[in-house]
């Protein structure tokens, strides 16, 4: 007679939750595991209580059931706020790629933040952001490469639109800015057609939202 033990796992519930690893909403399954005594590899008698865990449908990691009590709405709102700040910083860095900032670029950044991102921004605070960015000396390419893995496709699209609008504030893109945008296209994994569509959308936004306001 061959006697042993094994765990039987079953799905008890499923739904949506905020996954800390994925940093976003993902499907989950609530799984219950229970040890059984086996005879000839057949489970016969339960020898312990059920243990529950949550399995993320995105990253496949397991979590304690307490993860389901996280405030999903609050987490998503916080992430949205963080994304807006990241987009604004990236737009500032694009403008500073040639180490100078003009009045037209200042006005463009103020409009992008206040009107497009709905993030209140005064000239004084913008000056502080620019000063900090210049002191740190981080290139926009390195900044986007560091943070963009957290961006959804929608955020990536919005970020590129804002960066283009900031870079083209004076009408013509300077070579460092154009090179930067093309590198960002590669970092975000955008095809040439997608990149062109985003640029065209940006021009429409400039006409309908930002110009003469």
UniProtKB/TrEMBL annotation:
Record-linked Pfam families: TerB (PF05099)
CDD domains noted in UniProt: terB_like (cd07177)
Membrane-spanning parts: none
Chain ranges of the Co-chaperone DjlA N-terminal domain: 91-198
Gene3D superfamilies assigned: TerB-like
The protein's name in its UniProt record: Tellurite resistance protein TerB
């Amino acid at each position: 007679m061959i006697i042993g033990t094994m765990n039987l796992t079953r799905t008890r519930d499923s739904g949506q939750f905020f996954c800390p690893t994925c940093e976003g909403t993902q499907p989950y399954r609530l799984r219950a595991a229970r040890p059984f005594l086996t005879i000839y590899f057949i489970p016969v008698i339960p020898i312990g209580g059920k243990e529950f865990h949550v399995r993320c449908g995105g990253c496949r990691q397991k979590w304690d059931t307490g993860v389901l009590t996280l405030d999903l709405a609050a987490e998503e709102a916080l992430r949205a706020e963080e994304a807006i700040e990241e987009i604004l910083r990236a737009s500032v860095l694009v403008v500073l790629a040639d180490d100078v900032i003009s009045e037209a670029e200042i006005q463009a950044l103020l409009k992008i933040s206040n009107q497009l991102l709905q993030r209140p921004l005064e000239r004084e605070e913008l000056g502080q952001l620019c000063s900090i960015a210049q002191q740190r000396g981080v290139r926009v390419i390195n900044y986007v490469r560091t943070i963009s893995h957290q961006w959804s496709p929608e955020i990536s699209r919005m970020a590129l639109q804002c960066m283009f609008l900031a870079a083209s504030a004076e009408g013509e893109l300077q070579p460092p800015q154009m090179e930067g945008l093309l590198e960002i296209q590669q970092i975000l994994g955008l095809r040439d057609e997608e990149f062109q569509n985003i640029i065209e959308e940006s021009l429409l936004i400039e006409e309908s939202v930002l110009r003469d306001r």
